[in-house]
Predict the structure of Pyrroline-5-carboxylate reductase.
Amino acid sequence: MGRAILSGLLAPGVEVQGGIRVTNRSAAKAADLDGTAGVTAFATDDDPEANRKAVSGAAIVLVAVKPAMVPDLLDEIADALDDGAIVVSVAAGVTVSTFEKHLPASVSVIRSMPNTPAVVGRAVTGLSAGTRSSAEELALVRSLFETVGTVVEVPESQLDALSTISGSGPAYVYLLIEALTEAAVQKGFTAEQAAELVNGTFAGAAELLVRSGETPTDLRIQVTSPKGTTERALAVLQEADLPELFGRATDAALARARELAAG
């Protein structure tokens, strides 16, 4: 996720004042960013002080590591952070209270949940304020994530649920694309033809939804002629009770988020 956000921040037309510092565990991953304008990369395998150097003097610090790694990382960097720094969580399931417990009172915490389309500037990011963050700090972090897409502000109590929709959502879409592509192949199309048919259909349908201003229901009805082929296909899909299926899927994701939050 951190790499996705970085890709968006490095996109043409996006300006980040003061530059970006990034840490990776391995020198090889850090080397991938060598020569990238405005980016300084550190490797913790080469320099045990890398994380502390990266956060020193930073106005905004994004923590995008595996949830289990968060407490130790926060303890490591806590006294290297400047007073007034804003620490932004990009770690699924890790609460604001966990961050605030491990960081000085002079540091604000904001929790975020972006998704991978940040790479192409089309992320949907959920943001939740911490108990020590101000409206101005939340607005600043919002402006950062708006460089890679749109932002929805929610209370922290809703952020895990949001993650099951927009955070995990791209994977649901890709799964549907995989399934329809396989159906196309089974009907005699080559893999290349199937990909062109399905990928183009999903991209076009999404763009039409955005540009038309109409609801998905309105657009579905427009495609579905009475007693036609689409109506027959939709009848089969509706037998699967997709709303119930997606409800169970997102419930499972939410349960896992709560497990992560509980440690």
